[in-house]
Every structure is written in structure tokens, then in C-alpha cells.
Design goal:
The protein is of the alpha/beta class. The chain contains 37 helices and 26 strands. The strands form seven sheets. Strands 20, 21, 22, 23, 24, 25 and 26 form a seven-stranded mixed sheet that branches. α7 runs parallel beside α8, α14 runs antiparallel to α15 and α18 runs antiparallel to α19. It starts with 9 loop residues before the first strand and ends in a 14-residue tail after the last helix. The C terminus is likely disordered.
């Protein structure tokens, strides 16, 4: 008679189900009992039985917290006005509650106003959950801990006597409390903790868990430190990370790349190499720090190269057609129905248009709308343009145009049915026709008798897309039903929602849901770094390691700030993780979690690791973890430099720059062995002579940055001595035009660079840095164009362009010392540096020789207001009210003339798009050119010239007539200056894209939000 299997006496708790599966190593004929393999999430679900309560959904929680924030006071009320900030507040509340913090725990006597408001919000949130008979994940965890403490365990776990936690790197909060409760009931608990006392810097994140375990005095938990070294051919490499040790012969390949497309292709080639050597697909993993960003492109590249790959967490529903339809429909009205976005919506809906007995496909409808020339409903609408287009032809075309116009009108009416602002119930009713059109009838499930899993004929992608679309249809229908139910059952939390807020709410709901990849046979797995914890693969590819993006400092939380975290920890004992230096005893380095995950990723490979990382040409900065791999292997690792799967044929200029930057981590000996013999001597000399000075400069810079720690970083106004310093900065002295350009880019960048004197640490290099490359090109252009003017200008040179270029080459080489006067490079690299500068000079010269305009250069490197140039005084920019003036100095790269038009040019290695009224260098140069070479009737132009392509980009916002230029420039400049003199130095970047490489980004804590939404009307 069959019997039930015995209850497990041992539990092994893993970080994830994937980790538990990797712990099973079965031989032929082996059998293993898996009931004792579990995760903390499974334990919570098995223990936390909240009778009479329902788990609150993510949408309901977002709606509830928005309602509570909007009815708060002070800073909390401001948070409630923006749904994006409400999402941040929702995550903060979840973090507090998961850390066991409620209003009852917070003694608010003598608390700061911010903590008082936060405690009040927590109390009202808990009361709202109780009133609606709801619970959240924190309630589930608390109930599980309570049941374990009371011994009310499910029958299957009542015989458990031994518990082992595998990889306890995240053992804080509820998991630790649950273990403590089980240990108090007599279970022996052993924790395998990732920790190595020799490398505390790298193990700072799990050290926080270790400290929490050691602080638990009620019961004893046995801790077994695990340095994550392991065994096999990679053990020595893992042990050498973040130490002074150097290993050789490690099975590691470092692959620098320049673009995302190149990186994805390189990863696919590496995986193919693994497979050709006999590795099983399921024993290969590709991991990246940002799975949502890089995962889909990696899967596409692998499949395009004949390797079937699966995304470990599946695809988010926000990437589906149904999600795009909902997002486009809710955004179109406030954008004015731009043509391309409207046609995207039309094509996603897949509608066809009946014309007589024929039907017009959606692609043909789009072609008719584009031919009509209409670009937006704001510009007269589409019907009029379509009807006019049809009337220009015969009657059949007129009927087609009318049918297309009717279809566009029907779509617009469908979208317009959603009100601009209404309650959730009204929105839900208005969404019904749109949701019906988007979801439509249930799609036919793909079933092929000869190929049920799609493996034979390459149909797996179709199965995955079909599953995602079905899940998205169900999710959107559930969302509409939930919105209606929320407003009906809990009318007090609904309120008025704008169409934009509704769009954000829908995107947030769909973003939380994924469609898991089904197991369709052997596949290479694409994971995130966190998915590698406690797993084991033979070969691992780590990709997407951006020098500026990994390890990532934890983003500052605008809701639960470092000051609030410190105050809570001071009152309750350490409960919340902190990253800010100097705030609280348990402060962590901001990138601690990433460093720990990196070591876990290295530990997941048993045979071989490939690391690909992004490199920007000419910029030597590397990711910290990549530099550590270079250091620990003494530069002996395989490091091909191109997109092809070939070998590296020596160290080039960029290789020298990359290796030289490694010296800042004390890897001088490793770098010396990697470089040429001549370079090693220069390396030793520079490090020996400059190390002390560099350390002193770093200490001075850090001291300056510490003056801006805490809330003062984003403070709107400054006062006291600093305020007086800002207010008096422009009085008396002559300032460079480039400083005003920084002021236009961002007030905080100007404040940090020009008033506080902070700057990026300068690293010594063997080759030229980007500034020196531009300086050499400027010197060469000055030399050649100054002589060109004497020889008759461009008109004369265009008679024989090739002879002109040959003459310029001879002049350039004859004056090589002048060209490289501001460039300091190793002697072995002077020739290559000079050749790089000539390439830029030749590009600009050939572009000018090929131009068909009448412009002629009349001045080059024209200095004004500088010492020794008495004939060219500073430029005075008078305030619009005439009360004050600012004096400006600078050097104009070039001025051209064509009739009554002057054109001011500024050479740039890389041209960044600027907006009118926020760039000042070229407008100030234009005023000087008008003062010296023109008059009131002179027309003025200004442009940047790219040194890499020779093309000019016109500077926006400059008046065409010289007579109007002075007033416009003075107005724009003084508007920015007045803001600064009022004490407002808060960050206000001209463009969020300019924050990506700003040297003051870690200092200002400005949170960049790049808008991925494309502008349909270009």
C-alpha cells in the first residue's frame, strides 16, 4: 500500500529557486528528495496565513499611497502631486515595513519634522489596510515569523531539526527574524555567509548581514564564513580579487568593445565558441548588471547567430503590442495627435479600411496619411489634408482618401473618449472600447502537430510572442476591472486622475508583470547578476559592464533620505542600509552590493569566464571590477581589441591609455609588465615623482566635496559667506567666455567648478588626453589658416585643392613643435599624436575647400581681453537696466566673412546639441566680432565645427541682425547671472544627457531621468 513520503528533517534555504535547482547534482540512477530545498519566499507563503485578508495589489497600493500623500501636509503633499514620486514613496514605505518599522516603533517625541510626517504616513497607511481588510508583503512576513515563534508550523515542517542557509548575503530583516524564531524552537541553524576578513572592502554588503546575525543575542546561529574562492581553474583568480595577489594563466578573457551592437555580437561569438568546444547549452550563462536594458538584445543576437537563448525572468508586459497601444492612446491627445505616433497606434491595432469591395491594409493607410502632408491634428487636422489629396485625383482616389479620413477620425474619437481628468471609475468605463479594440478576440494558440514546441522550424519566438500577447491582454483587462472596483469599493481613495497619471499607472502595473520563458529544450540562459548567486555553470559570460555604470552607486532616495535613515537607525538600532560616508556607524560604500554580486558572478563559473566591457575611444577610464581583473592577472589575460573574433596584435595607443589608468589602483608592477620597455621607464618615473602631489590634490578635492554633503547638495538657496562669494563673483574681474558656457549648461556645475574650484582628478597618461588632442588640432588649424589668409584665402586655394592640402601638410610637419607645444606625451607616441592632429586638420580643410559658399576666413585665434593684448579690450556685457556690467575675455577660433555677413566658428571634438538662451560662448564671440569687424547693419552667424567630420552646426537663438544681437545676449546672460547672485545654485541641467559624463554628478545628486519617448514630429 503506497504511503506518503516522510517529512524532511533538514531544510536548505536558497536565495532563489534557480539556486536550489543548481544545488542538485545527480548521477545515473540517483534519486533525491527535494522537499527540504526551499526559499524564504516559499516559507513566508507556507507560514503567513492571514485569514480574512487579501494581499494588496501593486496598483491598489499606488492608488492608496497617492491618496494618503495628497492629504498630507508639507513635503509629503508635494510628493503626492507627481505619480513618479509616489512610486518612489511606495518603495520607501515597503522598505520601512519590511525592516519591521511601523508608526508604533517610532518614538516621535523630539523627532524632526520629516520623520514626524513619515511616521504619520505609516500610521495612516496601516489604518487604511486594516479598514479594507488588506495586507501587504510585510504583513505576510510578520505573520510567518509569529507562527514560527508560536510553533504553529505546517505538518510537513514540524519534523525539521536542522536548517542551513546557503549564501546569506541578504540576511537582514524578516529572514533573520524567521531564523531566530525557528532556532528558539530547537532547530539548529547554520548560515553559510559570504565573507572574507582579508577583503572587507569587497564583502561590505554581506558584512552588514553578518553584523545583524552577531547582534542577535537571544539565540545562537552558527555562521560559516565562505570567502567565495571555491576550487577548479578559476579558484586562484577569485582569491586574488581585491588583494595584492597576482595570478597567471587564469581561464579569463577580457573583451573591450565600443558599442552595444558590437558587444551583443561579440557575446554571441563567444557562446558559439563554447558550444563548438563541446559545452552543453544549459551549462552556459550570459549575465549582465542591467537585464531589462541588455537582456532582449543579447537574446536576439544569440538567436541570430544560431544559438537558442532564453531570458531567465521572461519579458515584461510593457514590451508587448497591447501595452504599446494603451500607452500611445493615453499620450496622443496632449501631444496633439502627431502623425507618426498616430500611425504607430493604427498599425498596432492592425485595422484595415473598407473602400468599396476592397480593403486597405494598415500600411497602405499610413502611406496615404503621409502623402497628405499633414503632421499633427493641431495643424488643421488630417481630414482636410486627405480630402484635398483625394480631390487632386479621380473619383476612386477621392473615395479612398475619404475612407482613410473616416478611419483616422474613428480612431481619434476612440482615444478622445478617455477624459482629460476624471475618477478611476469614469476612466475605466471610457477605457472599455479602447481595451476591447486593443485586446480583440483571443489569439489562436499556435499548435503544430509536427513541431509542438517550435524547436524544429524556428517557431519558438512565435510561441513566446503569442504567450506574451495573451498575458498582456489579460493584464490590461484585469487592470480596467481593478480600476472600476477600486473606485466602487473604496471611493475615498480614488480622487481625480489625469490622463497622463492614468498612463503612468497603467505602465507601472504592466511593468511589474512578466511572461516567464517556457522550458523548450536546452538553451543558453541570459540572467541578471543577482540571478547568479549560489548557481553553478561551466562557462559564464559577464557583459554590459559600463565604465560609468558599474559598479553603480546606489541612487539617492529623494523620499527616504540618508538623514532620515540615520535618524531612524539612531532611534531603533541599525534597521536601514546607508551609503553616505560619515552618516551613521554602519554606513556602506554606495556600490557595495554590486561588488558583492560581482564576486558571486565570478564564483558561478567553474571552467571559464569571458568579460566584455564598454570602452569609449580616447578615454582611459575603466570599471573598477575590470581594472581589478587586469591588475590581478598582471595584464596577461587575453584582451582582443576589435569586433572580430581575432587576437590582439600588440598594445596600441588606446591600450596604453587604458593600462596607464590602472596605476591609480597601485598596479604599477602589473602595468609595467604589460607595456613596452620604453613605456615602463616613463611609468616608473611619473609614479615616483608625482604620487605624493597627486595624493595631496585628491585630499584637497575630497575636503571641498565634503563641504557639500547632506541636504545642502540640492538646496535651493545658499547664504552666509558662500552667498556673498557668489554675489560678488562677477564684480571687478574679467571672466572667460567658457565659464559663462558652463553657467548656461548648469548653475551647479558653474558653482562647483568656477567658485569652489573643484575639478576631476587628472590621471597621468602616456598618450594625449582628449583636451590635448583638441589643443593640437587647434594649433595646427591656426597655423595653416593664418598662412592661408596671406596666400589669397579659400578662393585661391580652391583652384587646386590637392596642392593646397599638400602644402598644408608640409607646413604642419615643419612646425610640429608649435603644434604639440601644449601636449605632453611619451616620446614613443609623439608621431602618432601628431598624425591624429593632422587627421582632424585635414578633415576641416578639405570640407572648407569643397564648400561652394563665398565665405573667407578673416581672423584666426583672435584673442580679446587677455594679458598682453591691449589692442583688443575685454567685452563689456551691460545688464538690461544699465546698472551693472560684466567683462569677458577669450579667444575666437575663427571668423569668416561673406559680403555683409560675419560668421564666428568654434572648433569642437564633439558637438553637443544646445538650446537657445543657455549657451553663451559663441554669442559672446559674435559680439566681439561685431565690435571689431562689423556694424549695426552687419548680419551675424555662429556655428560649431566638428574636428572629426568638418561639418558646421549652427548655434541656435542668435538674432540675424547684428543690431539686435547685443540686447538678446545681455538678456540671456544676465538672466542666468541674476539667478546665481540670488543664491540659487541648485542643479538645472540644460539637457539630462549632459549629466551622463559630468564630473560633478556624484556631488550634486541630481537624479537624471532620460525620456525615452521619441519626438514623432521632427
Amino acid at each position: 500500500m503506497p504511503t506518503l513520503p516522510p517529512c524532511p528533517r533538514q531544510l536548505r534555504i536558497f536565495p532563489s529557486r534557480r539556486a536550489a535547482a543548481h544545488a542538485l547534482t545527480l548521477g545515473s540512477g540517483d534519486c533525491i528528495e527535494t522537499a527540504g530545498l526551499t526559499t524564504f519566499a516559499d516559507l513566508y507563503r507556507g507560514l503567513g496565513d492571514l485569514i480574512g485578508r487579501h494581499l494588496i495589489s501593486s496598483v491598489h497600493r499606488l492608488v492608496l499611497l497617492r491618496h494618503l500623500l495628497c492629504r498630507s501636509s508639507g513635503w509629503l503633499r508635494e510628493v503626492g502631486s507627481d505619480l513618479g514620486q509616489v512610486r518612489v514613496a511606495t518603495a520607501a514605505v515597503a522598505e520601512l515595513r519590511n525592516a519591521g518599522i511601523t508608526e508604533a516603533h517610532l518614538d516621535l517625541a523630539g523627532a524632526s519634522p520629516a520623520l514626524t510626517g513619515l511616521g504619520d504616513l505609516l500610521g495612516r497607511y496601516e489604518a487604511a489596510l486594516d479598514a479594507a481588510r488588506l495586507c501587504d508583503e510585510a504583513d505576510l512576513q510578520r505573520q510567518a515569523v509569529l507562527k514560527a515563534a508560536q510553533g504553529e508550523l505546517p505538518p510537513i515542517w514540524r519534523q525539521v531539526r536542522e536548517i542551513t542557509v546557503e549564501g546569506g548575503g541578504d540576511l537582514v530583516g524578516a529572514p533573520l527574524h524567521l531564523l531566530t524564531a525557528l532556532a528558539a524552537r530547537g532547530a539548529a541553524v547554520r548560515v553559510r555567509m559570504p565573507w572574507d576578513p582579508r577583503r572587507p572592502h569587497a564583502f561590505a554588503w554581506p558584512e552588514a548581514s553578518l553584523a545583524a546575525v552577531e547582534a542577535e543575542t537571544r539565540v545562537t546561529l552558527e555562521v560559516q564564513p565562505d570567502p567565495r574562492v571555491g576550487d577548479g581553474p578559476l579558484a586562484a583568480l577569485r582569491a586574488a580579487q581585491f588583494t595584492a595577489a597576482v595570478v597567471g594563466g587564469a581561464p579569463l578573457r577580457l573583451r573591450p568593445v565600443g558599442s552595444g551592437e558590437e558587444e551583443a555580437r561579440l557575446v554571441a561569438l563567444e557562446v558559439r565558441r563554447f558550444l563548438q568546444r563541446g559545452a552543453a547549452p544549459e551549462k552556459i550563462a550570459v549575465a549582465t548588471p542591467d537585464l531589462d536594458r541588455y537582456g532582449p538584445s543579447l537574446v536576439r543576437a544569440l538567436r541570430a547567430n544560431g544559438v537558442y537563448a532564453a531570458l531567465c525572468r521572461g519579458v515584461r508586459l510593457t514590451t508587448t503590442r497591447v501595452a504599446r497601444i494603451l500607452d500611445l492612446a493615453l499620450r496622443l491627445p496632449e501631444q496633439g495627435y502627431p502623425r507618426e505616433a498616430l500611425l504607430d497606434l493604427f498599425c498596432d491595432l492592425g485595422e484595415s479600411v473598407a473602400v468599396g469591395r476592397h480593403r486597405l491594409a494598415s500600411a497602405e493607410v499610413a502611406r496615404w496619411v503621409r502623402r497628405s502632408g499633414a503632421r499633427s491634428a493641431r495643424l488643421g487636422g488630417y481630414r482636410r489634408a486627405l480630402v484635398e489629396l483625394g480631390n487632386e485625383r479621380d473619383g476612386m482616389h477621392a473615395a479612398t482618401a475619404t475612407a482613410v479620413a473616416d478611419a483616422v477620425d474613428r480612431l481619434s474619437a476612440l482615444v478622445d473618449a478617455v477624459p482629460a481628468a476624471a475618477s478611476l471609475a469614469e476612466h475605466a468605463r471610457a477605457l472599455a472600447p479602447l481595451v476591447a479594440a486593443a485586446t480583440g478576440p483571443a489569439a489562436h494558440a499556435h499548435v503544430w502537430p509536427d513541431d509542438p514546441d517550435g524547436a524544429l522550424h524556428g517557431r519558438r519566438d512565435r510561441l513566446q510572442v503569442s504567450a506574451a500577447e495573451r498575458a498582456a491582454r489579460e493584464a490590461v483587462a484585469e487592470l480596467r476591472a481593478e480600476l472600476a472596483a477600486l473606485d466602487h469599493q473604496h471611493a475615498s481613495v480614488g480622487g481625480t486622475w489625469t490622463r497622463r497619471e492614468l498612463c503612468q499607472l497603467a505602465n507601472a502595473a504592466l511593468f511589474e508583470r512578466r511572461v516567464e520563458s517556457e522550458s523548450l529544450g536546452a538553451a543558453v540562459t541570459v540572467l541578471g547578476l543577482s540571478d547568479l548567486v549560489e548557481t553553478r555553470f561551466e562557462r559564464v559570460v559577464l557583459t554590459g559592464i559600463d565604465a560609468d555604470g558599474f559598479p553603480r552607486p546606489r541612487a539617492s532616495d529623494p523620499f527616504l533620505s540618508e538623514e532620515l535613515r540615520f535618524e531612524i537607525n539612531r532611534r531603533l538600532g541599525t534597521r536601514l542600509v546607508q551609503a553616505a560616508p560619515g552618516v551613521g556607524k554602519g554606513a556602506l560604500r554606495a556600490s557595495s552590493r554590486d561588488l558583492w554580486l560581482w564576486l558571486e558572478a565570478l564564483g558561478a563559473a567553474s571552467h571559464e569566464i569571458v568579460v566584455s566591457f564598454r570602452m569609449t575611444p580616447g578615454e582611459p577610464a575603466l570599471s573598477e571590477v575590470v581594472e581589478e581583473l587586469y591588475r590581478s592577472t598582471a595584464g596577461s589575460v587575453d584582451s582582443p581589441g576589435g569586433a572580430q573574433d581575432g587576437e590582439h596584435d600588440g598594445v596600441g595607443k588606446d591600450g596604453l591609455l587604458q593600462a596607464w589608468s590602472l596605476a591609480r589602483h597601485g598596479g604599477a608592477a602589473a602595468v609595467r609588465r604589460r607595456l613596452a620597455p620604453g613605456a615602463s621607464a616613463a611609468l616608473d618615473a611619473v609614479l615616483r615623482d608625482a604620487e605624493r602631489e597627486r595624493l595631496e590634490s585628491i585630499e584637497a578635492r575630497v575636503a571641498g566635496e565634503r563641504r557639500l554633503q547632506g541636504p545642502a547638495r540640492c538646496q535651493a538657496r545658499i547664504g552666509g559667506a558662500q552667498g556673498e562669494r557668489v554675489a560678488s563673483y562677477f564684480a571687478g574681474e574679467v571672466h572667460g567666455a567658457s565659464a559663462f558656457d558652463r553657467l548656461g549648461v548648469c548653475a551647479f556645475k558653474f558653482f562647483a567648478a568656477d567658485l569652489l574650484g573643484l575639478k576631476r582628478e587628472e590621471l597621468p597618461t602616456l598618450g594625449p588626453d582628449p583636451r590635448e588632442q583638441g589643443s593640437a588640432a587647434h594649433a595646427g588649424l591656426e597655423l595653416i589658416y593664418r598662412d592661408l589668409i596671406k596666400k589669397g584665402g579659400l578662393r585661391e586655394a580652391r583652384r587646386d585643392p590637392d596642392a593646397c592640402v599638400a602644402w598644408a601638410r608640409e607646413l604642419f610637419l615643419a612646425n610640429a613643435g608649435h603644434v604639440l607645444r601644449e601636449v605632453r606625451v611619451h616620446d614613443a607616441l609623439r608621431a602618432s599624436t601628431l598624425e591624429g592632429a593632422w587627421t582632424m586638420v585635414r578633415t576641416v580643410l578639405r570640407h572648407d575647400l569643397a564648400a561652394a559658399d563665398e565665405r573667407e576666413p578673416v581672423a584666426v585665434e583672435w584673442r580679446f581681453g587677455l594679458d598682453g593684448d591691449a589692442g583688443n579690450p575685454p567685452l563689456a556685457v551691460t545688464a538690461p537696466d544699465g546698472s551693472r556690467a560684466i567683462r569677458v575675455r577669450g579667444s575666437i577660433d575663427r571668423v569668416d566673412r561673406a559680403g555683409d555677413t560675419l560668421r564666428v566658428l568654434d572648433y569642437k571634438r564633439r558637438i553637443i546639441a544646445r538650446v537657445a538662451g543657455r549657451h553663451f560662448q559663441l554669442p559672446l564671440y559674435a559680439l566681439v566680432a561685431l565690435r571689431e569687424l562689423g556694424g549695426a547693419d552687419t548680419r551675424i552667424e555662429a556655428a560649431w565645427v566638428g574636428l572629426k567630420d568638418g561639418k558646421a552646426k549652427a548655434a541656435p537663438g542668435l538674432p540675424e541682425r547684428g543690431a539686435d544681437c547685443g540686447a538678446v545676449v545681455a538678456r540671456d546672460v544676465w538672466q542666468r547671472v541674476a539667478r546665481l547672485q540670488a543664491g540659487d545654485v541648485s542643479p538645472d541641467p540644460e539637457s539630462a544627457a549632459q549629466c551622463a559624463r559630468c564630473e560633478f554628478r556624484p556631488l550634486c545628486r541630481y537624479e537624471v531621468e532620460l525620456d525615452p519617448e521619441r519626438e514623432a514630429e521632427s
